[in-house]
Amino acid sequence: VPVEFEVTDRAAAGRLGRLHTPHGVVDTPTLLPVVNPNLRLITPRELKTLFGADILITNSYVIHKHADLRDGALEKGLHALLDWDGAVMTDSGTFQQYVYGDVKITNEEVVAFQRDIRTDIGTALDVFSTPQRTFQEAKEDMEETARRVEAAAGIKGEMALAATVQGGVHPLLREEAARRVAPHGDVFPIGGVVPLMEQQRYAELARAILAAKRGLPAGNAVHLFGCGHPMVFPLAVALGCDLFDSSAYAKYAKAGRYITSEGTQHIADMAETICPCPVCSAHTPAELARLAEYDRMRLLAEHNLYVTFSELKRVREAIRDGTLWELVERRATAHPTLLEALDVLREEQHKVQLEATEPISGRRALFMTGPHTVHRPLLYRLHERLRSRYSPPEAEKVILFDEAQRPFSESLRDRLAHHLQHGERHFIVDSWLGPVPIELDQMYPFAQSVVPRVPDAQTRRYLAGLLTAFIEERLHVPVVRDHEDAEDWTFHTQEELYADPTLTLPPEPTGPGIGRWNLDLLRVAATADMQFGRGAADALLGPQDGRQDRVRLVVSPRTMKVRNIQTEGEHVASLRAEDGLLSLTMAGARRLHAGFAMPQLRVVVTRESAEYNAQGRNVMSRFVSAMDPALRPGDDCLVVDEDDTLVAHGRVILTAAEAPTFRRGLVVRIREGSAKRAREADATTPSA
Amino acid sequence: VPVEFEVTDRAAAGRLGRLHTPHGVVDTPTLLPVVNPNLRLITPRELKTLFGADILITNSYVIHKHADLRDGALEKGLHALLDWDGAVMTDSGTFQQYVYGDVKITNEEVVAFQRDIRTDIGTALDVFSTPQRTFQEAKEDMEETARRVEAAAGIKGEMALAATVQGGVHPLLREEAARRVAPHGDVFPIGGVVPLMEQQRYAELARAILAAKRGLPAGNAVHLFGCGHPMVFPLAVALGCDLFDSSAYAKYAKAGRYITSEGTQHIADMAETICPCPVCSAHTPAELARLAEYDRMRLLAEHNLYVTFSELKRVREAIRDGTLWELVERRATAHPTLLEALDVLREEQHKVQLEATEPISGRRALFMTGPHTVHRPLLYRLHERLRSRYSPPEAEKVILFDEAQRPFSESLRDRLAHHLQHGERHFIVDSWLGPVPIELDQMYPFAQSVVPRVPDAQTRRYLAGLLTAFIEERLHVPVVRDHEDAEDWTFHTQEELYADPTLTLPPEPTGPGIGRWNLDLLRVAATADMQFGRGAADALLGPQDGRQDRVRLVVSPRTMKVRNIQTEGEHVASLRAEDGLLSLTMAGARRLHAGFAMPQLRVVVTRESAEYNAQGRNVMSRFVSAMDPALRPGDDCLVVDEDDTLVAHGRVILTAAEAPTFRRGLVVRIREGSAKRAREADATTPSA
């Protein structure tokens, strides 16, 4: 296989990846600057040294059209023609056909030509469906494209094939188009989207990407064709795009247009340069205006590339940090039409789609930054799991607290103590992230989040609906607001707090303590069920009856938080301080293995792999034969062989739908293999 | 006067200004980098050449404490000590008193010392009120500060005095503190705010700034003491701060902290630098980590300064563009606590305060970017004016349209035509910016705005309330939704439009035209009343009865929009294509002068000035003796002498409350003076 893709980190549906090509490894998400073989404002070498470009794109149709370029490329190869030894992708003339309508080359010719000039990734001559194309017209375009892609696959030889997904503005066609080209491509561009971006129809762009992603294999890089404006990168990456390309840096420079991550301006309208790049730090707009035209163009192109590549760095950092959604929401305020795209994401269908690959926790606090935050896939998942996985403790009524400082059990300690003394046992915080049972208050992102004192009314209304549904479906006892039940307390409603800015929430409590052990045991049990599925608490801790005697919780003397969980003397799991989720031990994995049937919680590996995994080596994608579809990135999982023998446990990187589509990279990072433990047991047996 | 301030442009309550000092003119808003005389990571000269700093701040208490520095400063002067010939401000030890609590210098000593070392702007030793100070405690601090500032004013000599506004977290005290120090200062720092910024209590910070601004004269620069994080600049500038200072660039660099306009990160946590500055374009975090400590600190400090100064450039450009509120709303998504500050701005009291200086139009489209947009001062003004200035045309019912493409009268042309044919005469668009009578659809920002297809529910709820109030108070005829009245039309509600993404609003109309003349005359009349006050249409166009025959509208043959308005053969005003507002001619000014009593619409100038203004020269602040308090920046006004003789007309730059507080700068940019016109009339009379 000429080009392979692996994923090394992820956030939202965005991936940090490595694209392996015959001319080096390309870190993604990234931009392929368009190189015009006839006009070199910035040379390929400079694109590498100044901006860090690892891969370029150029147009094979343009090269083919000019006899000297064509002959040179055929003779020396494309890399020599461009004086570039990194990866190169070529486009096929589709866009020229769309813009000028007079492309005189066939699909077979242009694919063979790309093969012959030894491009790394060549593109079939697909049919560009404009947004104006009706469903039927776009369907015909899509079918013709699928035929051409299939034909190209037969011609391409060693070259990797970019198989473009068309379908116009019709999501059903986009998904179908993706399925049709999926078997034939190595890289999948989403095409026909330039008019949507030019007209800032970002809601339709988001629908097109989401639909294409539904039909595409996860294990290949996805390219958003013709997208090179940094304003769109966070959204497009969050929806799963890995590659972008653009001639905008040069075209805009020619037109005096100045790109920022928040839009585009005309340099002629500016009194000051508003960016810290080397060009803008050294030149005012007036100074640029006095330069010769070529020099000005060159400097503007440099500026455009600096901001474009630095936004990509920012996006990649946001993936590593787990703050990509924050970046998407922030950038969406750059234009009202970007907000429309966020509206698309909160449709149920898209929440379900995005939830399927959303990691279980992040490395930074979740920020609530507007009406879209509460619809984020992670919160959607937790709201759903509260309904499907959470078991309320036995109690005669539920005490409902208003939003408070995090973690809730600490800021509400005095009040909890009061209610506990009065025999209450079930507490829920009506938080700005949704209902949070007090025993889940340390779970990501309930403790690891920052919310405004009072969020917008749309969020509040949505939360009120969530709470009502949760109460009606899951709680069959009366629900009483804390303040309604506590006349003897100095208490303020959220409205009062908001009306009086000098009031703050109560300081560190000094009242009587809460029976720690009870809350902590509830916490471990509820976390286990939320994280692994209903029944996990019983599997890990034994039946509720007698659990207090059976389970011992090791508490950190410094933080007073639960660290380790021992059941019948066996260390079964640890509670992570950073995200309040459980890390299994092998003993815990064995208990879950016994408690949950195949394929639940499992990643099933081939016998060949099982031996290695038992030694503690990670699970590679090509050795996975089945997997629980409920597992999510970051989840702890059980690695079993095809006979369901537990060989290891570890953390999931790819989901069940994704794993089989990757030829490279890890599916599970093993924490502990059974063989290692077995050897240790062997080793210690004699001396025991 | 040693330091004078003038305002050259404005947006929100933010000002583009020029601070004239004995060591040069400083463009504001800007940052004063803190120079530590003992430690020069970056020299003053480099601060100028690399980052464009025009003014520095250093600490006179620290200089005074070190004998060698003190003697050097007294001997050579502060500028020589720092090797810097630009402007310098000095602080007094107040912050050191707050942090370390052991400052051994009196107010009199430190002020005299600052005077003697010839600083440009020296600061009294004020009493730092922490947020913990109760109202009574903070009141005592404030009174002591006021006494010290008054004492300092008696000592300062040639030096400009920075008179700090304290008052803790108590807005009433902040305002009172401002009034107390106002007579004695040349520059006004807002002090005691560092703990608020450290604790990200931005709502209280916004209240403190707004309260201080209520008590301070507009004609002096306002300094937000200790604020140097670019994340806060857009908000602080929009509320009227002109100067910032910070040692953060160096202190953060020392701690490995990396500043961005959206927050702060630790360089050790980063895999890639996420900024296009010269440092980040050339170094990865790993490369920085390998450098010697001093070199790494130096480069991080450079990065911190590049992003800090480039955010100031961005803020200044946003003032020029009229997009400062857009920038504020965008940056507020960087942290939930910044959103809380926006909540403060939508309190009625603050809307009133901010409306008073909000310019009447902007150079770019208004963007709706979230639940706060609809509360912007400009929209608040227009909603208020609809209730107080707008006169509904006579009609038996009102047809209400849903939000549509701009301008509304064009996108709704077919439907308007239909209703006109059925005898309807009054049309209002229930737009996402509030109710818009169809005849005001070209007025800024109704046509010059971009809104999402469906805004958030909080905005929708607020708009529903506005519309209800408008209908109840102002319309005394039935209101009928367009679609309820038009069964013969293919029509979709906004909900349907939203539910079906493939539907778009109707394309360019081809149906029968609207009686242009009627709508245009309504437009001119309604615009006149909204812009100048109720009665302006009668004054400019004569009574409604017979207006059609009296008024001639000159329409651009290209755009088909009204350009000039002639009443009884006299050109009285032009309708500006860019913002749909009226520009008066001298004939129009005369009509308004006759129609509105003193001091309405007037800027009253001294006799000395009147002669010059009649020649077309601009009105300077020190010659204004009175002014209509209803005039807003950008408004057309009548310039009259003290006998109410009309001498000129022009555009207002400063408001009535502001003008008397400025010693420099323009109050009115004259469009036309009576003398010039008189001369022209004289010149043409013989040949006529």
Please render the helix and strand layout as text.
The structure is a homodimer.
Chain A: E1 4-11, E2 14-21, E3 24-28, E4 30-33, H1 44-51, E5 55-59, H2 60-65, H3 67-76, H4 78-82, E6 87-91, H5 94-100, H6 107-116, E7 121-123, H7 135-155, E8 160-162, H8 171-181, E9 187-190, H9 194-198, H10 202-215, E10 221-224, H11 233-238, E11 243-246, H12 248-254, E12 257-260, E13 263-266, H13 278-282, H14 285-290, H15 293-321, H16 324-332, H17 336-345, H18 348-355, E14 366-367, H19 377-388, E15 398-402, H20 408-411, H21 413-421, E16 427-431, E17 434-437, E18 449-450, H22 457-474, E19 479-481, H23 494-499, H24 516-532, H25 536-541, H26 547-550, E20 551-555, E21 562-567, E22 570-575, E23 582-584, H27 586-595, E24 602-605, H28 607-614, E25 619-620, E26 624-627, E27 636-640, E28 646-652, E29 666-673, H29 674-684
Parallel strand pairs in A: 4-11, 5-6, 7-8, 9-10, 10-11, 14-18, 15-16, 15-19, 24-27
Antiparallel strand pairs in A: 1-2, 2-3, 12-13, 16-17, 20-21, 21-22, 22-23, 24-26, 25-29, 27-28, 28-29
Helix pairs in contact in A: 6-7, 7-8, 8-10, 10-17, 12-15, 15-16, 18-19
What does this structure look like?
2 copies of one chain form a homodimer. Chain A is α/β, with parallel strands linked by helices. Chain A has 29 helices and 29 strands. A 6-stranded mixed sheet of chain A has the order 25-29-28-27-24-26. Chain A has a 4-stranded parallel sheet with strand order 4-11-10-9, covered by helices on one side. A 4-stranded mixed sheet of chain A has the order 17-16-15-19, with helices on one face. In chain A, helix 10 packs parallel to helix 17, helix 12 packs antiparallel against helix 15 and helix 18 crosses helix 19. In chain A, 55% of the residues are buried.
